Amino acid sequence: MSRKPKTYTISAVADQYGIHPQTLRLYEREGLLKPSRSEGNTRLYTDPDLERLELILSLTRDLGVNLAGVEIILNMREKMDAMQHEFERFFQYLQSHAEELTNFDAPPEGSSDALVPLTRAAALRRRTRG
Fold first, then answer.
1. What's the number of domains the chain is made of?
2. Rounded to an integer, what distance in angstroms lies between the CA atom of residue 57 and that of residue 48?
3. CA-CA distance, 73 to 56, in Å (whole number)?
4. Which domain holds residue 112?
5. Rounded Cα gap, residues 125 and 119, in angstroms
6. What residues contact 13, with CB distance under 8 A and at least 6 apart?
7. Quick check: is 127 in a domain?
8. pLDDT tens by residue, 2-26
9. DSSP state of 8
């Protein structure tokens, strides 16, 4: 059974962070926050929404970044997170295939010499043997 994530209303979030509810509505209009909605159309903020809000408030209050700059920074963070995830997947792939890659010697007989070795180490081994 999955548990529903804890949610907070706009007034609770506004009170907790010392901001006006209109500020939260503005952030939503600008696409900076995307709270879910209840069946009665009430905005519901989750813990990840609050983490994002804290970042927005830090950028605007502490660093003086305007909302356009906040949007750029948030988009860049999302792209960096996606790139990090892809890098981790690639690294896991390399780890799981490390033995295959390090034991790469020469192409099978009858195959084209145009095949490029998978690793620099394999290329160096081929050069020193030839």
1. 1
2. 14
3. 10
4. 105-130
5. 10
6. 24, 45, 50, 53
7. yes
8. 678 899 999 999 999 999 999 999 9
9. B
